[in-house]
Fold this sequence. Notes:
Elements: E1 2-3, E2 7-12, E3 15-20, E4 30-32, H1 34-42, H2 49-59, H3 64-80, E5 84-85
Antiparallel strand pairs: 1-5, 2-3, 3-4
Amino acid sequence: MKLNNSFISHQMDGQTVIVPTAAADFHGLVQGNKTLGVIAACLQTDTTEEEIVNTLCARFDGDREEIKADVHEAVEQLKKIGAIDA
C-alpha cells in the first residue's frame, strides 16, 4: 500500500497534515502528531502495516500490540478517505 498521489503529506510545527489535491474526492485535512508523520513517511513508498509497525517500534517506546492497533486504525481511516492505494 502507498499514499495516493492525490494526497500530500506536510510537516508543520511538529504536526503532520495530509492534504488532498483537487483530484481527490475527499475535501478536508487530516492532522496528526509525530506518529502520523512516520506513518505518512512510510507510505511514500510501497509498504505494509507490519513494516510501519516495525518502523514505529524502532523509533518510539511503547507496547507493540498497542502500536499495531493504532497503525491499523490510522491505515483504515486513510483508506476510508481514499488516501491509500492498496
